[in-house]
Specification:
- It is built from 23 helices and 9 strands.
- With 469 residues, it is of the alpha/beta class.
- The protein has a 5-stranded parallel β-sheet with strand order 2-3-1-4-5.
Length: 469
């Protein structure tokens, strides 16, 4: 959840620094917000441009081309951006405002990681966003359309506030079943939230709402609980209530989280037009029949939790950046997007196995004979120069077995096959079946390398071709 604008922007900068020099899309609710955020990011040193329907066609095309060609890292956009854009290396999609529905969210997040490499999707939301969207919904003339839009909005609010696996929620929303225990990729699966007995917390909230006449919103309830001396509370004489000041043990932000959770759990109603809080039958079960309530346990620091995507990538980032720079130079010369030269997956594999001759380079995913002939020498020159300038030990990303050592110098086929007897041979159907079975049984790429007597690059490439990674 978003707090204030300053905190939200600070969280955003944290995310962007984690993805330095990587391509990303940030979606905003309005044209004005898009322009403002893009300008602010430029002031903070990020190459960013806005994209929205209010820009003329020529400017939109220019900004899109700059993004595709990696001249800018970030496009800050409304939902007008992204349709039909063929850019595979988008490493993150951030919704800086709440999307209007899960359909839009699903489509927009689908623009991340099309090259198969790990990518992040992050959603900021607040009830302020919800109120803005409700305003637009209320302007619809057709009552049926308003009802459908409200239901869709509630679905994405529930998605944001759920403790369930995000993938499971999305698939079930679109009519599919997710049979696994979890996806091991979303925040709820990677960092499950602890629960605690929140019955007393809930009783304090509900009792306060009852005593102020069910006429106020969440922030006012929190202010009463925390003993605020605001003029509004004093003039309403709510400072004399028994619930005044009984909630100083939690921050204002944490009380708001508890209230949102009670609304999501249906222990409390939020009136649509003015966002006032109302009790219901389940509220009374807590107040008078002592029904137990489990709430999410507060964290020491109530902030946006960043969960890094799990990945077994081990590539040399310095070499990767040098290869990216060469790719950009070639792409600019040929007036094509960088991915036309090589995808990020190809560059990262180069920066993992350090091929130093054409024999090894042609085993890398995405390098066929045409590209080998056209670009091979230039990329090999960068790799060989990098290898020669680095101490052998610093290049050892794996253990020092003979199999891993072959990345450090040039070998003939016969020399490679002393350690890897089946290196550079065509794959048989039987080997494919064996590889699939071993991989699905949980074996790592290193273990498969020993088992199948082939190089890491060949194993990883074959796994991708079989659709296993």
């Amino acid at each position: 959840p978003k707090t204030n604008a300053k905190e939200s922007y600070k969280y955003l900068l944290t995310i962007l620094h984690q993805h330095k020099n990587e391509s990303g899309i940030i979606y905003c609710f309005s044209r004005k917000a898009t322009e403002s955020l893009a300008r602010k990011l430029r002031d903070d040193g990020f190459r960013s441009l806005p994209y929205h329907a209010g820009l003329d066609s020529e400017t939109r095309t220019l900004h899109q081309e700059k993004f595709i060609r990696d001249d800018v890292e970030i496009v800050v956009a409304t939902i007008a951006f992204g349709m039909g854009i063929n850019k595979s290396n988008v490493r993150y999609v951030i919704h800086y405002n709440l999307p209007r529905n899960l359909e839009g969210y699903y489509q927009e997040t689908g623009r991340a990681g099309r090259d198969g490499l790990p990518s992040e999707c992050i959603l900021f939301y607040s009830y302020g966003d919800k109120i803005k969207i409700e305003h637009f919904i209320d302007e619809k003339e057709d009552a049926r359309e308003r009802e459908i839009a409200r239901n869709k909005l509630q679905a994405i609010i529930d998605f944001c506030e759920s403790k369930e696996c995000r993938r499971k929620i999305l698939l079930e929303y679109f009519g599919e079943q997710f049979e696994e225990d979890g996806c091991e990729a979303c925040d709820n699966c990677l960092a499950p939230k602890e629960s605690f007995d929140g019955t007393i917390v809930a009783q304090k909230i509900l009792s306060c709402i009852a005593r102020i006449g069910e006429r106020f919103g969440a922030q006012y309830v929190v202010d009463v609980l925390r003993g605020s001396e605001s003029q509004r509370i004093l003039s309403n004489k709510h400072n004399v209530l028994s619930t005044y000041g009984i909630g100083k043990e939690y921050s204002s932000k944490q009380w708001l989280k508890f209230i949102r959770e009670l609304v999501q759990l249906k222990f409390l109603e939020r009136e649509e037009q003015y966002s006032t809080l109302k009790l219901n039958d389940r509220s009374r079960d807590i107040l008078f029949r002592k029904e137990k309530v489990l709430l999410t346990k507060p964290t020491k620091e109530d902030s946006l939790v960043q969960v890094a995507a799990t990945t077994d990538e081990h590539f040399d980032t310095q070499l990767f950046e040098q290869l990216r720079a060469l790719r950009k130079k070639l792409a600019d010369t040929e007036h094509v997007p960088p991915y036309v030269i090589f995808h990020d997956t190809t560059l990262k594999e180069m920066a993992t196995v350090f091929p130093t001759d054409e024999l090894h380079l042609r085993t890398i995913t995405g390098i066929g004979e045409r590209k080998l002939k056209k670009y091979g020498k230039q990329f090999l020159d960068v790799i060989k120069d990098y290898v020669s300038r680095k101490d052998k030990q610093s290049l050892s990303l794996e253990n020092k077995s003979p199999i891993n050592a072959i990345v450090s110098k040039t070998y003939t086929v016969d020399e490679v096959r002393k350690n890897l007897p089946r290196a550079y041979e065509n794959w048989s159907a039987e080997e494919d079946q064996n590889l699939k079975a071993q991989f699905l049984s949980g074996k790592t790429v290193n273990e498969l390398t020993h088992h199948l007597q082939r190089g890491r690059g060949a194993i990883k490439s074959r796994l991708r071709k079989l659709g296993l990674t």
